[in-house]
Design a protein that fits this description.
This protein has one domain (7-189, 213-404): MFS general substrate transporter like domains (Growth Hormone, Chain: A), CATH 1.20.1250. Helix 13 packs antiparallel against helix 14. It is built from 19 helices and no strands. By secondary structure, the chain is mainly alpha-helical. The relative contact order is 0.16. It has helices at 3-30, 36-41, 47-54, 56-75, 77-96, 101-115, 117-129, 132-143, 145-164, 166-187, 218-247, 252-280, 284-306, 310-324, 327-339, 344-373, 375-381, 384-389, 396-404.
């Protein structure tokens, strides 16, 4: 076996472990959203209250993503992923024993704080082990972890909660995070890092090793675009199931299967769009296309629900979910490439912090919109977010220049 093939095999192995690890942490973060029907219809919580509880892990993520990114930059991916997944498993196990909703929310926040470890670390694993012309595809595979984790939660959490209670449902992420903490410790290897360039005679640090936020608005614009595009994504992942059950009258199992199928199609879409970005040599151009398509899909979904076209609305939920998650891997890859190996952990932490702040707000805010205006208008209003993102997307030429640097 040649050294090139050996390195390639190692890269794919790191990708497989990292994707599985991030999937496990995503199951924990996504699980409370699939408790909303039980909390709303049987436990008496309002949609806004249930949405706030569902947002608790995301709130925890927001508090620690940048700190985890800095730790990854300093200590490496293997240590961060192992420690974070272990802490997530412990928090999920404690949530199983929570005596009330306040305590449950606290442990969900703590688990989310720990789960943030896999976000930056797995992104750095992809950028560190894969060459530029394969990173879009590899990051698309890594980004499958979020919809796959949501799919697992959609197919398992409602049934477990209905049959055995909320605590039993949370045992699934507790066990899976513990298993993959061990897998990361045994299987993850930190990617090689380029040697630091010597300082110039003047003492100045070379531009490529300095703060990537200085001298360019590119990263800030990508962060802002990603914040806006996460709004329709989390609207669908948080309220898609309860809309099908309470709004469209679907049985619980059928609704869970449809939401799971939508998330799975979204995972495949991320791979396809990532591969397309490799072929185009651009991450930002496909982001522009996704923004247009996401706005159109949310408008169409709201219109179909308003017109009471049940079958069309279900199909459009599949379409809108697939489109709404397609940009994540593109933006994640672009941020890591432009930030460089010395800053990518922190930059990816900033990237995810902005997204999860928006995601945490989606639960209570969209829940209030649905309560006041109904599902059709609430869905249609989320189309404003991708429309606002369009003028913020950087030009291809700026991305090429910064990547070359």
């Amino acid at each position: 076996m040649t050294a090139r093939n050996s390195t390639s095999a190692r890269a794919w192995r790191m990708l497989a472990i990292g994707t599985a690890a991030h999937t496990a942490s995503t199951v924990f973060v996504a699980a409370p959203a699939f408790l909303i029907p039980l909390l709303h219809s049987e436990r008496g919580l309002s949609l806004a209250q249930a949405g706030l509880l569902a947002a608790a892990p995301t709130l925890g993520l927001v508090l620690t993503l940048i700190a985890w990114g800095a730790l990854v930059d300093r200590l490496g991916e293997r240590w961060a992923m192992t420690a974070g997944l272990t802490l997530t498993a412990l928090a999920a196990g404690a949530a199983v024993l929570a005596p009330g909703y306040g305590t449950l929310g606290l442990f969900l926040v703590l688990g989310g704080m720990a789960a943030g470890s896999t976000n930056s670390a797995t992104g750095r694993v992809v950028v560190g082990w894969f060459p530029p012309d394969r990173r879009g595809l590899a990051m698309g595979v890594r980004q499958m972890s979020q919809p796959l984790g949501t799919t697992v939660a959609a197919l398992t959490i409602p049934g477990l909660a209905a049959s055995f209670g909320i605590g039993a449902a949370l045992m699934l992420p507790a066990i899976s995070c513990a298993v993959f903490a061990v897998a990361c410790w045994l299987g993850i290897e930190n990617p090689p890092r380029p040697a630091a360039r010597p300082a110039r005679a003047s003492g100045a640090v070379p531009a490529a090793s300095g703060n990537p936020y200085r001298g360019s608005w590119f990263l800030w614009r990508i962060h802002a675009v990603s914040v806006l595009l996460v709004i329709p994504q989390y609207t669908l992942s948080t309220f898609g199931l309860v809309w099908l059950i309470s709004g469209r009258g679907w049985p619980d199992l059928a609704a869970g299967v449809l939401v799971g199928a939508a998330q799975f199609l979204g995972a495949l879409g991320r791979i396809a769009v990532g591969h397309l970005s490799d072929r185009l040599g651009s991450r930002v151009r496909p982001i522009r296309w996704v923004s247009v398509a996401a706005g159109a899909a949310m408008l169409a979904l709201g219109g179909a629900d308003w017109a009471d076209w049940g079958a069309a609305a279900a199909v459009l939920l599949l379409v809108a979910t697939t489109i709404s998650v397609a940009d994540n891997g593109l933006a994640f890859t672009s941020v890591a490439e432009v930030a460089g190996p010395g800053w990518s952990g922190r930059a990816l932490g900033v990237q995810n912090t902005g997204q999860f702040i928006a995601a945490a707000a989606v639960g209570p805010v969209v829940g209030l919109l649905i309560g006041a205006l109904g599902y059709p208008l609430a869905f249609a209003l989320t189309a404003l977010a991708p429309a606002a993102a369009l003028p913020l997307i950087p030009a291809d030429a700026e991305e090429r220049r910064l990547r070359a640097r």
